[in-house]
Amino acid sequence: MSEANRVSLAGSPSAAPVERPMKIVASAPRQASRVRRLPVVKTWPTWVIASVQIGILVSVVAAWELGADVGLIDPFFWSRPSAIWTALVIFFTSGNALLDIGYTFRSTILGFALGTTVGSLLGMSFWWSRNYAAIVQPFIICFESLPKLALAPLIVLIFGMDLASKVAIATALTLVVSTLTTFAGVKAVDRDSERLFYSLGATRWQVFTKLVVPSCLPWTISVLRVNIGLALTGSVVGEFIASQHGLGRTILYAGQTYEIALLWVAVLVLSTLSIIMYVGVSWLELVLRKGHAH
Question: Where are the domains of the chain?
Fold first, then answer.
């Protein structure tokens, strides 16, 4: 190539790209300034959140009472807060409030404990034999798809009108959920850890107690909150069908006699009981998780 051609190429417009990196560098701060940051959401204090919740509750109650006074709400079908308060006082002073609450509480806790324990042990037992798991699993799934509340009248006929029938219904609702959840934990057990245990000379029982049970424990803990609600549902349904005591029987009686204020009282007490049990189960879950972590 001649010297003239080199000079012409050097002076041609194709040599201009040498200045482009400087333009990119100069525009970099502008692009960085356009990057959007995550919005900072300020968390309200606990007392502020509680105040808002109480304010909403008071507003709903006041609007309910006012609506009943001016005729926007029919007090016969919906009752009114003042009448519900009067029925609440009568329920706890001259009624069988503590007996009914204790009856529902006992059946719920017994069904919850029995269903969770037996279901978890059944799910863990599938680890011992794949053939056993393959045989039993379809029956478990079939029982899960079956509307167990439809069997409640049969369960009451078998176990009677006492506490046993309510515990049986609550157990039936919680057992299958615990079984399937724990079985999922069994299938998630680390196979490499299992081989390591066997290579170190561990027996099957040692592998089960030292590896499988600790691995499945988080799965069992995760189902506790679900099971407490299912157990309460089973107990109340059993009381709907046939019972001499319980909050479910109170709700059924109030609905049949059109005592709407008493019905709301029973629903309110039942909701409070469910919240208390949910908080207790949440505390138990926290304790178990800390123990498992250590």
Answer: 3-33, 88-293
